[in-house]
User: What shape does this take?
Amino acid sequence: MIYLTVGTYPLGFDRLVMAVDEMCCRHGVECVAQISGGKYKPKHMAYQKFYSIDKQSAYIEKSQFVITHGGFGVIGDVLCKGKPLLVFPRPPEEGPNDQRPVVKRLYERYGFCVSNNLEEFSSHFVAMLNDDSGRREYLLETNVPAIIGDFLNQI
Assistant: This one.
């Protein structure tokens, strides 16, 4: 099972949700998605606009890998849990800000998969499907992701 989350931006991230829906159909993969307020409704995966923090945490734990936009909160959660991660950062024309610079810095430090276009995304998706190595060892030299995760859990 794969878990997709696009964060809380009210307009969602339809381009990413559609791409994952298509890839899951093409490869016969189960996926659970948190889609926020997007207009596109997935046809090949279970979804809700939002999941509780506990439910999201359980889906992250259960997943083979996690796909997300460039939100720091969920990236921190996934890094702390040591799950394989595929990030597709939202560019400024699809959201309130450009997530690419922050994602680039986090990628340089932690080495998760990043795709900035759908062709790269497709390649990473297939490679991650075929990688059954499980958990990742992210060298977190700081407890900042845990602190942010704890703070977000209290909101």
